[in-house]
Amino acid sequence: MKKTKIIKAACLVLILAILAGCKSPWVPEPTPTPVFTPDMTKTVGAVQTATAEAALWTKTCTQTATVTSTMTSTHTITATITATGTITSTFTITSTPNQTQTFEAGQTATAIATYSTRTATPTVTPTVTTTATPTITQTVTPTVTPISTAGGQGNVIAFVGNVGGNQDIWTMTESGANLVRLTFNTADDTIPVWSPDGNSIMFYSHRDGAREIYRMNSDGSGISRITGSGEYCYEAGWSSNGLRIIYHRNSQVYMVNADGSGNTKLTYGSAYDGHPSWAPDNENICFYTQRHGGGEIYRLNINFPDIQTRLTTSGTNSFPVWSPDGSKIAYLSYETGVSSLYTMNTDGSAKTQITSGVTIFGMVPPKWSPDSSRILFTGESGGGYYDIWSVNADGTNLCNHTNSASLNYNCSWSADGTKIVFQSDRDGDNEIFIMNADGTGLSQLTYNNNNDGVPSMK
Fold it and tell me: CATH number for the 156-457 domain, one of 1.20.120.80, 2.120.10.30, 3.40.50.1370, 2.60.120.200?
C-alpha cells in the first residue's frame, strides 16, 4: 500500500511601512502555524519532489522596517511596492538564509510568494524547511468498500419518509426495491446527504433539542452527533475527500471534521454569511454574504480564513456552487430583475448569464453534474408550479425535464450523472421520482399517503 508523507511549509513574511517616527515600535504579527493536510504530500519514488506553498499577507507599519529571511532553502518572492504619491515599482527578492530587505517609511508592500519546487533523483534528497518543522506522519489509504446495491439494482437513494407524522431517513435502490428505514427516533430526521465514498449519510435531527448535524453508516448503524452547539445548523456539505463538513450556524460559516472534532468558525462579523460550497481541492470554499447590504459572493482558503476575496459586486447574488472540476462557480443572481443562473471563473472573472426565459426558484442552489458539463435547477412554470430543468454549462441546450402542472423540486444527480432523482406532488402528496439525465424514462418510486422527499442518490 502506498505511503505518503504530509508536508507543508508556510514561508512568507510581509512588512509594510508608512509614516516614519511612530510613537511606538512596530511589532510584526506572528507567522501562523502551518496547516498540513493529506493533500499536501511528498511522493517517494524514482523522482522525489517537495513543494512549499506560501499564503498572501499584507502588513502595515509606521516606521522603516527590515525583513530577514529565515528560510533554509532559496525561495523567490515577487512583490509590488507603491511609494507615497504615484510612483510604482516592481522587484523580485531571491531570499537565502539571513538575507535582509528594507522597506522605507511611507511605502506599502504587498507580496505573494510563488510556489517553490525542488526535484532530485533518488541519490539526492531535496530539503524544503522553515523555522516551523512539521510533524511527518505516515498516511495509509483506507480500502473503500462500495455500498451494496441489492444485487446490481443500481444506485442507492436516501430520502426522508413520513410515517405517522414523523420524519425519518430511508433508503431504497433506484428501482424502488429494498426499502429500508434507517432512523427510528421520535424527533424529525431530515435532509440526508451521502458522503463522497458512499459509506456514510449526513443528516439533520432535533433529537437533542436544536437542529444539529449527525452522521451514520449507510445501513443506519453508528449514529453520532457531529455538532453540539445547541444552535440550529443548516447548509451542510461534505468536502470531496470526506474528511470535513462545512455548514451555516448563527449567520456565520463553520467547518468541522467528519468525526465531530475540530469545530472551527471561518467567518466573523454581524452580517449574514451562509450558503457555503467546497472547492474540489478541499482547501477553498465560496459563500454568500450580506456584509455590503445586498447579496455578494466571497471565497476563502480554510487554512487562512481571514484572507477573503470578493467575487461579485452587483448586490443581487446568492447560492454559489463550485464545479466538480474546479474551474467555475455557478450562482443565482437577480441582476436582470429576474432570478437567473450565472457562472464565473473562480477568481470572479468571466461572469456569464446562463439562463433566460425561465425564472429560477431562488431558495435552493443549482446542482452541477458530476462531469461539470450540465447544471440542474428548479424553475418556475407559472401558476405556482415548478419543474426540473437543466442546461449546459455554456448556456446551450436548456431543457424542461418534467413539464408537469405540479411541484417538482429537491433534485439530485446520480454519481455517474446518468440519472436524476427528485420529489413531486403530482399524485396528490410528495413522492420520489427518477428519470434519465435527458428527462426520458420517468418512473415513480414511492407510493403512499404520506410525504416522501429530499432524495439524495449515490
Answer: 2.120.10.30
